[in-house]
Amino acid sequence: MSKPIFNARTADKFVVRLPDGMRKRIEDLANDNYTSMNTEIIRAIEAHLEGQARQTLLIDALEAKLKSELQTAAKPGKKAQEANIDYLDGLKTGTR
């Protein structure tokens, strides 16, 4: 299978207005890494998007865990509010 040829003339483009000083920071980073400014910008965007995806997964997992813990703790004889406090105390002390 042949690798597709990248053509900068036909690649998707988007103009970005950079805050004062950011162009210099990107340029310095690119020079330090022996890459182009474009490469460093793409790497930063990819890292941000991957971080957002990981954050979403973590939040979903934490919400599911909290819901499960609250349902388990809210059994007859124990108030839901007490269960919530117990769970949060466990988070603070690292016992759960």
Structure description:
The structure is a single chain. By secondary structure, the chain is mainly alpha-helical. Helix content is about 65%, strand content about 0%. It has helices at about 20-35, 35-75, 80-95. α1 crosses α2 and α2 packs across α3 (about 80-95).
Write the layout of secondary structure elements.
Layout lengths: L21 H12 L3 H37 L6 H14 L3
Helix pairs in contact: 1-2, 2-3
Keywords:
96 residues, mainly alpha, Arc-like DNA binding domain-containing protein, Arc_rbn_hlx_hlx, Arc_DNA-bd_dom
Helical coverage, percent range: 55-70%
Q: Termini distance?
A: 51 Å
Mean pLDDT: 83
Along the chain, the helix and strand elements come as HHH
- Indicate the low-confidence ranges by residue numbers: none
Cα-based radius of gyration, to the nearest Å: 24 Å
Strand percentage lies at under 5%
Protein name: Arc-like DNA binding domain-containing protein
InterPro entries: Arc_DNA-bd_dom, Arc_rbn_hlx_hlx, Ribbon_hlx_hlx
Pfam families: Arc (PF03869)
Domain Arc-like DNA binding: 8-49
Short précis:
With 96 residues, the chain is mainly α.
